[in-house]
Protein 1
Amino acid sequence: MIRVFATNQGLVVEADGRYRQAPRSFGFDAIFTAYEPSRLVLGAIASAPEVPAPDESSLRAPIESQEVWAAGVTYFRSRTARMEEAKSAGGGDFYDRVYEAERPEIFFKATPHRVVGPGGRVRIRSDSKWNVPEPELTLAINAAGRIFGFSIGNDMSSRDIEGENPLYLPQAKTYAGSAALGPCLVLTEQLPAGETEIAMEIARRGEIVFSGSTEIGQMKRPLPLLAEYLYRENAFPHGAWLMTGTGIVPPDDFTLAHGDEIRITIEPVGTLTNTVE
């Protein structure tokens, strides 16, 4: 397993328990366009100096020119939550139909400048009254459409806007500070096992106000299928990140507040921590 961290000084690569500073010219675009990213990364640090493990304060989002996309209604809990959101709009059975359909929901999430890194500030919309984080396993897919790694993603969502009308999905999902990635990119030939846990805690003024967890095995659709649909009739010359949906949904009476701290953990990626503004 190889972990790649984006820092203020460039990429730091952890391999065999040692951290090495990659050349300044080496970035995520090179990794995401390589046919064999792991081999490329190991070659780039073959003679690189060893450095200390990066401090969270120096970390940035593991992204360069990649688009961020997302899959929805991939867990039964998400399907239920989406139907609850849409009750006031007179229904919501379309979410049930998406859950049962062969074709998954795939939507655009963020360009790189909208993505927040570890320790950064994610945002809630000023015109929304019901906002939640969505902790998600996020796939790294190279330009050829092959999954070569993963990270943690936070798909910030305005539930009241999406629930009012499904055509409002872009406004509920895509805005400045609506996505977070990190703390690193894990390069691996094997996808996470079904028992891999996704856990989230939300703290408010030092007190835990929500915690929950799920396992990747609770996902309805296979991960390669989601990647295949994303790349179907589409091209990503710099590769793409794909958030794979959430199975952790806070109760309907919960909404994020300014200053909340969101902590999402998936091993071996680590913990992605962000503050809400």
Note: Residues 14 and 145 are 25 Å apart (CA to CA).
Protein 2
Amino acid sequence: MAQLFHPRRALSTNPLKSSAPLGAALAYLGIEGGIPLFHGAQGCTAFAMVHLVRHFKEAIPLQTTAMNEVSTILGGGEQIEEAIDNLRKRAAPRFIGIASTALTETRGEDVAGELRALLARRRDWAGTAVVYAATPDFEGALQDGWTRAVEAILAALVPRSPERDVDLRQVTLLCPSYLAPAEIDELVRMIRAFGLTPLVLPDLSASLDGHLSDDWSGTSLGGTPVARIADAARSACTLAVGEQMRGAAQILEDRAMVPYHVFPSLCGLKPVDAFLRVLMQLSGSQEPPPSIRRDRARLQDAMLDAHFFTGGLRVAIATDPDLMFALAGALASMGAEIVAAVTTSAQGPVVARMPCDTVILGDLGDLEAAARAGAAQILLTSSHGRHAAHALGLPLVRVGFPIFDRLGAQDICRVGYRGTRAFLYEIANAMQAVHHAPRPEDFGATPPPEEFTHVPQPAPC
């Protein structure tokens, strides 16, 4: 059982985590025709937008209420109303997701109460779903903001159902913050292979997968339709990926009596096998489809090929709790040793189940120090870890958010049989690319005498 250690100091030397409002905005972008709206100053929104644009290489419709000195003191209710009015006139969104920032949370503004009063008074907003999530910058990380946004969406848009009207072929797939669009596509493909229909929430695979639109739009270019969110109450089961989605799955069970399964990880042979067993039960299948069985056999072969490079590999990892647990677990099952683990939030229950002794709640400065002390051979973290990798002279596998110095972050897939296979090859190839010049000492030979290594210099003319 891993122990969480939080270094006490006044500052962060090399920040690791992204803020909770950014995580909420990312979740809101998974709703079709949606616009994330930050309730705070313009600088908070600009900083988050830079990260999103650099990661996805796409235009991001992130908006702000642009609070000033007066509204900060007297309250920002008027700014919220004005912002929603402007967005409805300019972009005609079907969904507006509001996320608070440190400015409004420090003031103690009752945004939820003000929004309820606005929605009751402004009947002309009936065609736009408006959802609010409390996401202060100073509490939690990207994963926590995503969680609160998804829970707020379900609480606002899924009605309470005293009776069950079940569609036995439909399942709700609750996606965590770390799933890339390609990973959502892979899970959807696996679910459909069993004859089931997935209702994905939030669905970044349709909005931020990197496609060209026929026309410009001031809203998200795809995602979960707002009208379909209420249908989650009719699903035969909820499949929640990551412990961060347990609360959202519980909301569906409380409101509509939908049973759920939580999968802490879908990276590695055993976690994916557990996912398939549930799909077989839901579909009534006696065995997986041939395509899925073939994928599993290919993963087993990849594990045989990659274990020469992962066995005994000393790994240092730094990212959000759920992603850290999934990747570290997959590597530990291949014989790797997690010598340094740094995470962003203390709210992840999987931290205690990490395959190491200590998890540090810190930054990339902690990762560099722990990796050096543990003689790590490879780093796994975001693009911000490239400085630590350079200082340590170690290969860096980019995971998490943001990845801004490589193209194709939306196409990374490390879940399912196919994704795990690609991940193991990625780690093995990163280690093979490390240049190694053999020396006699590496094979137990004694070094040659000094007189044989000294090259005499010619006398000066």
Note: The mean pLDDT is 91.
Protein 3
Amino acid sequence: MPVSIKTPAEQAGMRTAGRLAAEVLGFIVPHVKAGVTTEALDRLCHGYIVEVQRAVPAPLDYGGSGERRPFPKSICTSLNSVVCHGIPDATVLKDGDILNVDVTVIKDGWHGDTSRMFYIGEPSAPARRLVETTREAMLIGIRLVGPGARLGDIGHAIQQHVQAAGYSVVREYCGHGIGREFHEDPQVLHHGRPNTGLRLEPGMCFTIEPMVNAGTREVRLLRDHWTVVTKDYKLSAQWEHTVLVTDAGHEVLTRRPDEVL
């Protein structure tokens, strides 16, 4: 599938969807605390997306095939050693946990996709360092986005930062193009070689969402066919933004109002 170039009108649709996804993460902040279940967070986000934003939660009923049922919830909640696609359930958050909340909103047919990490109470020093390094890696990748840049340069820069800190980049899952479809071309790897890969053009839109493990990069898919965990059960962290390539550089469509990039 060729990489789509969004027109100004299409970019406006993506901008709205991105803003709404960011708003959901802002809305849920005060509710992410010890004693709350991930299922409760899902119910809150679902209600906000459907009833307040008059939008659609993209993960709900997404992607069933073969033995894998469609995703059963409206957000992903990936806790501690869960790398991605954690299904909200009756798990109760406790002090010291780290949690990724991943939100994708559909508005007027356009998708906005973003995630962020949360600390439950006071994290350990190693957990905090992992989370902060992962966010730094995402920002390093975002800052390289612009016309003429290549995806291999972005992936290489992310990989170098992560590995210099003693961590591992997950390779089985990556960023992706986004627009009318949840997942479009190109694939945006968080590792790579300089001066390789797709050359970026204004109007391209994709996510940058490095998944970083405290231990090895190996992962394992659980029996629900969705939840991905670290094979060594060590912590994992992820941050994500939807980014638009502009004539002058880039625009982060899912930037939260209080966020410094």
Note: The chain has one domain: 8-252.
